Structure prediction request, 474 residues.
Amino acid sequence: AIIGCGVGGHGAALHARGQGLKTAVFSGRDVGGTCVNRGCVPSKALLAASGRVRDMKDASHLESLGINVEGEVTYDRQAVADHAKNLANTVKGNLENSLIGLDVSVIEGRGILAGPNKIKDDQSGKIYTAKNIILAPGSVPFVPPGVTVDEKTVYTSDGALNLDFVPEWVAIIGSGYIGLEFSDVYTALGSEVTFIEALPMLMPTFDREIAKQAERMLIRPRAIDYRLGVFASEVTPGEQGKKPCTIKMIDANTKEHVETIEVDAVMVATGRVPNTKDMGLESMNIETNRGFVAVDDKMRVKTSADGEVIDNLYCIGDANGVMMLAHAASAQGISAVENICGREHVVNHEAVPAACFTHPEIAMVGLTEEQAVERAEKEGWTLGKSQGNFRANSKALAEGEGAGIAKVLFNKETEKIVGVHIIGIHAADLIQECANAVEQGTTVRELSMMVHTHPTLCEVLDEAFKGAVGMSSH
Prediction:
């Protein structure tokens, strides 16, 4: 039985049925979860539509391709919002149909643990028994203290995806993946954006070299400014078109008042927290850490970080906090089922890629350069670094998209890849080759001899792989 039906729970259910296991899913009236209904999927629809608007308004880029657009480029806000909503509904329907088609029992209520091997349906009160239980409740947006959210003028990513209006000036609290993607949407649709970041640098989780490139490509040329090293200590909603939102900021270190600004809207993009409240964890003596459920490398639940493994109980996805990505949740779900079937399996999270779908995109797998330097020093090996450039790539130049790099980090002794970071056109698609190489332990020398189609963007990686072993690419 699986509690939760986001990408993780759905992936686990499909694999369980594929292994011949009788399977039930407690959907909590939310088939598809955050990713499909309030996250990855609808946000890509907004990015696709707004990206077209940006491209069509970029007269100099179009002229370089011999194209002239006469008249004003306009968009229908409601139609753009509907595109996102319709896509989410379509994907949700496909997920539901796939479960029904594989004879998975879909229980609409939210599942609550009621002791070993027991789950209570919060809707009917009925108790179900299962030999193995997988917890996949996902996560919800984190709202910092002092921030009042009305999901109208002050909203999380949940409210932002509705695109109820396009503010003239929007403040985005947090400059991670979610904040960066929405800055792309808003500036393309005509908004001015102000980032409010508590740490002393933008995009704090990104590789520093890539973050600097991103600032040059995605921040400076656009109507974006930022405040660093400050907390939004108090955020008060306004009223659309009548009253602005108020943001009071304090210094992150001294906690002294720094500035108060008034904006049309505030998006809170300060991360996510596990959706594990009131799901009966105490019935199994499970202690959480800020709501996160501790697991071992086989996704088996532990009573606490240093506690004992609980037999036949697993936790996957955002709720365990190991790697808060939809496809990581799905991989963990498949892994949990493999372990249930007696085939030992561990997900290599350093081979799981991630992407930020800005224009251009950012993608990565493995360690940042800062992390790699630290590990090489600790473990006693030499870090190698090689770079490919989009400006030297025929396909990128044909598109008029020569900005960006691909950086490959590797162990000089073993020649195995420890990290790859790409910023440039279609980076999110290019990273998969690198993730596969990390997973399989393919060396840069082996990769340097693999033939890449010409002319394609993947030759940017070919340049980096060849450079790593002293070869020159065509």
In short: Residues 433 and 458 are 9 Å apart (CA to CA).
